[in-house]
Amino acid sequence: MNDESFDELIASVKDAGKILRGEVAASRVFDIPEPDVKAIREGIGFSQSKFAHLIGVNLRTLQNWEQGHRHPTGPAKVLLKLVQADPKSVVKNLHANHA
């Protein structure tokens, strides 16, 4: 890494710290809406236990998501978006992996 690239990297880290502390606003903000877990599950006609098993989460976790006590993050959020967008394909592929 050359000096110019290193200096750029250090400046970026310092900027990130300022954003994290609320000293400056981020130049871009991505607002990804929370998936409606219950609507997604009901849309494919699965019970809570069957859906939890399908996506590989604890039943209580799914219930907490549906009740709004917790919110899916990371890979779970992506998986829910995929189920919402193409339920037949995702259910078929996930079911094949559980068989």
Automatic annotation (TrEMBL):
Residues 37-73 form the HTH cro/C1-type domain. Keywords: DNA-binding, Transcription, Transcription regulation. Pfam families: HTH_3. InterPro entries: Cro/C1-type_HTH, HTH-type_reg/antitoxin, Lambda_DNA-bd_dom_sf, NadS-like. NCBIfam families: NadS (NF041265). This is Transcriptional regulator. It comes from Methylomonas methanica.
